[in-house]
Amino acid sequence: MIDSGPVGFRVASDKPFLIGLGVLGGSYLLIIVAMVLADLVFLNYADQPLLGNEMVKQGRHVDSGVTVVTEKGRRYFFRAGKNETGLRSSGVAIFGTGLFTATDGEVTLLAVEPGRPVTASLRPEVRLSGIAVTNNVATLTTDEPHGLLWGEFIRVSDADAAGWDGVREIADTTLHQISFALDSDGAQAGSLGLSKPNPLVQALRSRDIRFSIKLSLISCTLTTLFSLWVAVPIGYVMSRFQFRGKAVIDTLLDIPIVLPPLVVGLSLLILFRYMPEWLSDFVVYKWPAVVLAQFMVACAFAVRTMRVTFDQIPQRFEQVALTLGCNRRQAFWRVIMPQAKGGLLAAGTLAWARALGEFGPILVFAGATRQKTEVLPTSAFLELQAGRTEGMLAVSLIMIAAAAVVFIMARTLGMKRIFA
After folding, report:
1. Which of 189, 211, 394, 398 stands the most exposed, by the fewest C-beta atoms within 10 Å?
2. Sheet of 98-101: strands edge to edge?
3. Could you write out the three-class secondary structure of 106-138?
4. pTM of whole model > 0.85?
């Protein structure tokens, strides 16, 4: 007789469980993707026109509309605010944001509702009124205040002479003048076009940010090497041996992970108050402080990764090597380390990426001095302090690209997925 089981018994479907896992995990992944896309979408990758002063005065919209006097035939940049739908020029309505050519002596802002504050922006495109060349330095005179500062960049295009076109660093400015160096064979030009390069171009051209990229690459590489030098022996000892006080040491190794980054930097700063003066002068607020601040946090992640790596390698392999005549050192280098290559790569990659994003300890212990202790996170901070949001996002995209390239290379080379 065959037992058919309980009457009415039915195996529950796994779909609700799998859907729940997908929703919970997918929501976090969605937030990550949305953050990166927001950075990418926010930036305007096109060159921007060189604009003069704001022409719209503060006030409120009236029934007849707010009128702004313009110059016929001149180009203007219009940006509608939250209380405007567009503007009207010569009876033609213009909507959206961008450049337009005035066909009359005035334009009228189109309000969403009378009585609301004026939030639109209308600025004239700057035109050149003079071009002079002295000792291979070009000085351009504009008919409107250009708003550019020394050290910023400008793109010259459509010049009628060789040696002008390209992105130029501004060497000097006044209210109506811009000066920059020409190529060695630059001749006098009669006409040319000016625009502001997109934020990524300006960031990659900036000497300050190029220095921060260079220092970030060097300091992160040194931090990774030092972290692996320490993480391999500590991870091996913590994985293979039992001894008194192991729990205490394990707790101490995790302290840099759980401590707020600013506290790590402050602790390092206080520690070096008790160091010899020559050592303190050499490290604090210098580039070695950048490496040490990165090392204190990144090494903790490398140690944890290497310990998990050694835990996953069976001790039997090592014991067999010892019975076959190898000593502990030979068994470590010939048996254990070849099997730990994937974990070693994972630890190095994680340490490098963690060092790249370190900000708090560096700010406190090394400072944020341009072309001295400036790394990419502090560049983003300095750009934000200066009110250059687009510059900050450009630096952020450089950091995202650098981290992505490192992880893709590590995955390609066979990095293990060990992040315990």
Report:
1. 211
2. 98-101, 75-79, 121-124
3. EEEEEECCCCCECCCEEEEECCEEEEEEECCEE
4. no
Structure tokens at 127: 């035109």
pLDDT for residue 415: 58
Report which of residues 279 and 185 the model is more confident about.
279
Cβ(363)–Cβ(357) below 8 Å: no
Is beta strand 128-134 parallel, antiparallel or unpaired with respect to 166-173? Answer: unpaired
Q: Are strands 193-196 and 177-181 parallel, antiparallel or unpaired?
A: unpaired
Label residue 405 exposed, middle or buried (CB < 10 Å: 0-12, 13-18, 19+). Answer: exposed
Cα–chain-centroid distance for residue 90? 45
Q: What is the C-alpha separation between 154 and 241, in angstroms, rounded? A: 62
Best-predicted range by mean pLDDT (10-14, 95-99, 138-142): 138-142
> Whole-angstrom Cα distance, residue 315 to residue 309?
12
Q: Measured between alpha carbons, how far is 189 from 312 in angstroms, rounded to an integer? A: 70
What pLDDT digit, counting tens, does each position of 195-210 carry? 888 888 888 888 888 9
SS3 state at 194: strand
Q: How far is CA 253 from CA 234, 241, 250, 263, 345, in A?
A: 9, 16, 5, 16, 20
Give the C-alpha separation, 204 to 189, whole Å.
Answer: 27
Cα 391 to chain centroid, rounded: 9
Q: What is the residue whose two structure tokens read 């035939």?
A: 73
pLDDT at residue 378, as a whole number: 92
- Please report how the helices 389-412 and 341-356 are oriented relative to each other, as an axis angle in degrees rounded to 10: 180
C-alpha closest to that of 257 among 306, 305, 308, 300: 300
CA distance 60 to 238: 71
Say if residues 51 and 127 touch (Cβ distance below 8 Å): no
Return the exposure string of 90-124: e unless at least 16 CB atoms fall within 10 Å of the residue's CB, then b: eeeeeeeeeebebeeeebbbbbeeeeeebbbbbbb
For residue 170, what are its two tokens?
């501004």
Q: Binning pLDDT at 50, 70 and 90, where does residue 227 land?
A: very high
How many CB atoms sit inside 10 A of residue 168's CB?
22
72: phi > 0 → left, psi -120 to 50 → alpha, else beta; which? Answer: beta
Q: How many whole angstroms separate alpha carbon 373 and alpha carbon 269? A: 15
Which residues share a beta bridge with 179? 139, 172
